[in-house]
Amino acid sequence: MRNETSLVDIARIYELISNMKCTGAPKLKLKLAKRVFLVTCFLALFVAGGSMALAFPSNDNVCSGCHTTTDVLTLTSNATGTVDATVGVPFDLDLDASNGAGYLKIVSTWSNNDQFSFSISEVEDDSGDDTDAAVGEIALVLTITPLATGTHTIEIWIAAASQLSANLLVTVEVAENTDTTTTTTTTTTTPTEPTTDPVETWTTLMYLFNAIAAVMLIIFAVIMIKRTK
Amino acid sequence: MALHPVFVHFHTGILTATAALAIFMLIMRLVFREGIRTPGTRMAKVFHEFDIFIYWGSIIGLIGLVAGAITGFMDWPMEALIDDPYMRFKILWSAVTSQIYVFLIFIRTKLGDKVWDSTSGFLIYGILVIVGGALMMIMGAMGGIAVYNTSILSPILDFLGLPWP
Predict the structure, then answer these.
(1) How far apart are CA A34 and CA A30, in angstroms?
(2) B82 and A161: CB-CB below 8 Å?
């Protein structure tokens, strides 16, 4: 509705400028005004397009690789010092992101995140998992289940447009679970599949597909030139 | 501020529009054969205007495609891009699509509107315009998925098993 109104307003302003009748030097100014108006509209569209830049939430790199400004967004938790936990026993961590946070993400390859199981690994601002309705603020209760004993670090990142990012490190001391009555061990054997590196495959395809395309297009060009009199 | 989003929408729209016109022109050319280009008829004029749009659309689109690629590499590090399957697909097929448009511009510049004369000529030309536009549409959808996590084309891409690899 707001956009429609803006478009109508722009159309009215342009119509007013177009319908103004002047002679001599003012006419020249009016022509210039029309041009300035159109260029301004074009620039506004240009800037609007730029402002739509968001993140690549599907990326697995730490956010600071692309979102290089790391001192604007804030990410805090209710953890004070080292958190004590037990293998297989879930515990909750209250997370609070603000100052324009767009995404919160936890990837298993960061720090010791693979030593834990997380109830959720990605939260978008104002999505169903975000309990803070304010724009640019994310709040959630993250349930974490330790998978192995030892001192591990959990690494959490938040990011937003305009290159912003921030992270939080939480140290967890995980003790062995002595409660044998509740522990069940399940051994599953999964068949091992041959692993292929997708980046390697992609590199090969970059050469292969482009070479095939080039050869095919040259053949097409020869056919078309020969058959067209 | 990221530059890439500013440079990607305009040419994607133009190139998909050229593909839509190419579909129309192919159908017209196949249905009316040479009659579609009878000088002086309104149909021939429309056909000619569409042909001109495809030609200039391809030129502007190719410039936009190259600009989009350059700004993409400026905005995000290469290792972050190739780590993402959507970006890998976009880079791979952007290179192939650029070749297609270089071919289309070259052949149209050399042969003029005679590209629509022979059957083999207009089929190759028209189908490649459609393929180029379709690839641009898929790459645009993947850009949308990378940013918003979803696209109207997501069900089709899932069905086709894309992105790959």
Answers:
(1) 6
(2) no
Question: Across the interface, do B107 and A221 touch by the CB < 8 Å criterion?
Answer: yes
Residues with Cβ within 8 Å of residue B47, at least 6 apart in sequence: B25, B28, B29, B36, B37, B116
Report pLDDT digits (tens) over B101-120. 999 999 999 999 999 989 99
**Could you tell me the two tokens for A17?**
């400028």
* Distance in Å, alpha carbon of B52 to nearest chain A alpha carbon: 19
pLDDT of A138 strictly over 80:
yes
Cis peptide bond N-terminal to B165, omega within 30: yes
> d(Cα A88, Cα A108) in Å, to the nearest integer?
17
Task: Give the length of chain B.
Answer: 165
C-alpha distance from B33 to closest chain A C-alpha (Å): 16
Residues of B in contact with A228 (CB under 8 A): 111, 114-115, 117-118, 121
Interface check for A52 against chain B (CB to CB < 8 A): the answer is: yes
Of B137, B5, B136, the closest CA to residue B74 belongs to B5
Over 70: is that where the pLDDT of A193 sits?
no
Which strands make up the sheet holding A74-77, listed edge to edge? A74-77, A91-98, A138-146, A116-118
**Could you state, in order of their start, the residue ranges of all structural domains in chain A?**
2-51, 63-175
Please identify, in words, the CATH class of the domain defined by A63-175: mainly beta
